[in-house]
Amino acid sequence: MEIVFLAFILILSIFLGFELINKVPATLHTPLMSGSNAISGITLIGAIVSAGSEHEFIATVLGTAAVAFASINVVGGYLVTDRMLGMFRKKKAEGNK
Amino acid sequence: MNAAILINLAYIASAILFIFGLKQLSSPETARRGNLISSVGMLIAVVVTLLNQGIVDYRWIAVGVVAGSIVGIFAARTVAMTAMPEMVALFNGFGGLASLLVGWAALYDGRTSVFIAVTIFLSILIGGVTFTGSLIAWGKLSEKMNSRPMLFSGQQIVNSLLMIAIVAFGVLFAMDPTNVTWLYVLIGLSFVFGVMFVIPIGGGDMPVVISLLNSYSGLAACAAGFAINNLLLIVAGSLVGASGIILTQIMCKAMNRSLSNVLFSGFGSPKTGAQQIEGTVKPIVPEDAYYILEAASSVLIVPGYGMAVAQAQHVVKELQELLEKNGCEVIYGVHPVAGRMPGHMNVLLAEADVSYDVLQEMDQVNPRIENFDVSIVIGANDVVNPAAREDEGSPLYGMPIINVDKSKTVFVLKRSMASGFAGVDNPLFFKDNTRMLFGDAKESISALVREFG
């Protein structure tokens, strides 16, 4: 039953993703990619549990490496997206035309 | 309330914030706030995860977070906008690797059923392919590697054998997850497969590959979510997976090619067009180009990857201002696959302070293309190649293009007569209404700007 439950969540999320992303204009596709990439860094929370749990030493090592890589993704991804989106501006009021 | 319920409730809040964040990306006005909302969702998820009762030692977590954050902050602050595609590629790769490691570590949780073993197998496979595939994409995009497609005879056979081997070892692993030999073999095979998957793809097709890898980085997180039974990983991972798939579809459609054609055909190796091109190339000097521009009342600028290479976006903006002062309307026509990743041109122009309401899509500019007095093509080639419309023998045939050849005059800024990434001749250069402005794009535009001055 657990499998069915997880699959159910998966399918609904994918459909939701399609609906959401279809509304993103082409002009924002690069920030969309870097921003969604930051979201894929969610694997960080799985990594945190592995790095901090009292399992075998190898699990701690793997978890710590995963925390580091996922943190690059999350921190770098959100910051660079913010930097990019800060550049998108509409023409100023005192325009040239 | 016990910690597990609290954590899961907070995960629901995070998922909602991710969804709202993505929703706000539907307009440039709200997008920045959307990104902030999404990052708050991430922060909540991370903080509540620390409450997990299984966690007994915070030292290694701190080491990992601090190390990763320093690299992330540094990369995000220093990357040039022209280098954005390779950075996104690299980040995709790190995401994939993190998911691979999480899946691997799940093996030591002590709850190994066949189902868990299969999901661990999937996170290792998808994560591994994403990791090495992204590294190759990064190498090609940053020109540390030759960006031409790498093809050899029997490539398809090697890839098929590789896939069969992966499935076979996957089955062995699922039947006996305690045997780490199968695991190591699988990790190795996934890495090799990632390399094999990206090397046959040429530089011009990179927008497709990077979108696809973006999708995989999400799916890898999703698979890791199954392996560790974490719903938030599944939800967030599949949102990203869906996003990457949509971008991939848009890119393929913009090139009128199927995904399998992009992945397997080695498009971009030099080919000869079927149609004989007639006519002569008519060069123009900046002085003469200036007189035409001065008299123009509407100008379309079509940027391509060459603009990024020449770092010409800032002088292009200067030219735009001068033209506007002269009473001329300036519109940018951006083809979906211009540049090396989806939306690449828009970011570069935004960096140069070009307002996003003059950045228009192909479908917006094509219906009124005849009304533009001048189209200026800056470092774009295949996306304005009329052979895509006219020459059934051309490899580009059927690809939607910006029909600049139908505007009154076309200026093509080009370094030399070399063909585009697709290796296809461009009849546009030989049309009667086309004038070639040879030289570095930045130099040529600067020369035009000086003429106005």
Compact description:
Chain A is an all-alpha fold.
Question: How would you describe what is shown here?
Answer:
The complex is a heterodimer of chains A (97) and B (453). Chain A is mainly α and 97 residues long. Chain A has 4 helices and no strands. Chain A has a domain at 31-87. Chain A has helices at residues 2-21, 29-40, 43-52, 57-85. In chain A, helix 2 runs antiparallel to helix 4 (57-85). Residues 268-273 of chain B have low confidence and may be disordered. Chain B is an alpha/beta fold. The chains are: A mainly alpha (97), B alpha/beta (453). Chains A and B meet through helix 1, helix 2, helix 3 and helix 4 of A and helix 1, helix 2, helix 3, helix 4 and helix 8 of B.
List the helices and strands and how they pair.
The complex is a heterodimer of chains A (97) and B (453).
Chain A: H1 2-21, H2 29-40, H3 43-52, H4 57-85
Helix pairs in contact in A: 2-4, 3-4
Chain B: H1 3-24, H2 28-49, H3 59-78, H4 84-105, H5 114-141, H6 155-175, H7 180-198, H8 206-228, H9 231-254, H10 259-264, H11 286-295, E1 298-303, H12 305-310, H13 313-325, E2 329-334, H14 344-351, E3 359-361, H15 362-365, E4 374-378, H16 387-390, E5 409-414, E6 434-438, H17 441-452
Parallel strand pairs in B: 1-2, 1-4, 2-3, 4-5, 5-6
Helix pairs in contact in B: 1-2, 1-9, 4-5, 4-8, 5-6, 5-7, 5-8, 6-7, 8-9, 11-17, 13-17
